Amino acid sequence: MGKRKFSLIGWYRQFFLSERTATISAALVLLLLPIMLFLGFSSDMMDLASFYNGMLRFLLVATLLYSIRKHELLLMQGATVGLLFCMLCAQSEYALYELVEMDSEVYITTGLQGFIFLAVEQMVLFVESLVCFDHFVIHVARRRGATRLFVNRAAILFLLALLVVQLTIAPTLRFGLGYIIYVWATHLDELISFILIMCAELILLIDSPELTEE
Hints:
The radius of gyration is 18 Å and the shape is globular. By secondary structure, the chain is mainly alpha-helical. The protein has 8 helices and no strands. The longest helix is centred in the middle third of the chain and has 37 residues, at 73-109. α3 (48-70) packs antiparallel against α4 (73-109) and α5 (112-139) packs antiparallel against α6. Helix content is 85%, strand content 0%. The mean pLDDT is 83.
């Protein structure tokens, strides 16, 4: 028998449609969130609003994992919407308030990596907004044109790439160790959360006829 050719699209579908991928992603997020909350309070980077957001995300991730394993599409859609909004709210507060209003000059003085970090954070916010908007257009307004579906998937993959860039840059920033660990853990949590969201998005796209029948 000849060797099977590697297919990027095939790997992509196999990876994000795998229940194992969703389970591992959710487990890692549920493990990281308490650690992130502890690091946030210990480094004075977290307030009660951020704590509340983190607790909501913990519940939504657990709900999303349950819905994926049980194939509960309505519950999956609701949990995905809630998680998207929680992620967007957290990113908007971080990118538009904490970085721009409080730390932008400090980051810029750290050199090129600090400037890139700031710029990428704004890009992350923009792409998360696009993903959230596309989710509503595709799954609520039920406009599933080929271009829109491509943009939705490409946007999430691009977002994952941006978060990998931030994970690479964060350790090079010249700040206190506690703050760096918190920033790194926050972006790792965000990366894994969007892998889980991508799993749910693909299931919802493929099984959308079942959702309309319900």
